[in-house]
Write a structure and sequence with these properties.
Layout (H helix, E strand, L loop, with lengths): L1 E3 L4 H17 L6 E6 L2 E7 L2 H4 L6 H13 L7 E7 L3 H9 L4 E6 L24 E4 L3 H31 L1
Parallel strand pairs: 1-6, 4-5, 5-6
Antiparallel strand pairs: 2-3, 2-4
Helix pairs in contact: 1-5
Keywords: Hydrolase, Metal-binding, tRNA processing, Zinc
Cofactor: Zn(2+)
Protein name: tRNA-specific adenosine deaminase
């Protein structure tokens, strides 16, 4: 179930991008997510894996937790998840388990994407729930956030290595 580019989705993807920027400000990989129900954000999150040293601290997982608390249920019926990067297997599993109706993502993830790129766990007919997927919303913006972050990270590592080598010489 893959649908492409729907202009009204840009409003909520901008909210997800704002969350990704919060992650980047903390030195985290800039991935952000929001969950919308009845035209209102009920859950939001950004990547916190490095900050809290917890493998499950992905943007989607944090947003799902917040949304469940907001509705008072583990079932997120009639909700849409907006996320800047295609969900990984863990997050796709949580999407199915929480019964999110629709997933909208910006950039595809060729290394771990499980909403259509490597596989589509959200459209697996053997599960008792499937989610509709819309991909490529604000794709360039979302991709550029990640590309820029990793470029800066590589430059910083290179600079640190050069400084270390200079100290070693001296």
């Amino acid at each position: 179930m893959n649908i492409r580019n729907n202009d009204p989705d840009q409003r909520w993807m901008k909210e997800a991008v704002a969350e990704a920027e919060k992650a980047e400000d903390k030195g985290e990989v800039p991935i952000g997510a929001v969950i919308v129900k009845d035209n209102k954000v009920i859950g939001r999150g950004h990547n916190l894996r490095e900050s809290v040293q917890l493998a499950t601290s992905h943007a989607e997982m944090t947003a799902i937790q917040g949304a469940c608390e907001a509705v008072g249920s583990w079932r997120l019926v009639d909700c849409t998840l907006y996320v800047t990067l295609e969900p990984c297997p863990m997050c796709a599993g949580a999407i199915v388990q929480s019964r999110i109706e629709r997933v909208v993502y910006g950039a595809a993830d060729p290394k771990a994407g499980c909403c259509g790129t490597l596989m589509n766990l959200t459209d697996e007919p053997r599960f008792n729930h499937q989610a509709y997927v819309t991909s490529g919303i604000m794709e360039e913006t979302c991709s550029n956030l990640l590309t820029s972050f990793f470029r800066k990270l590589r430059e910083r590592k290179k600079r640190n290595k050069a400084e270390f080598m200079e100290e070693k010489k001296g």
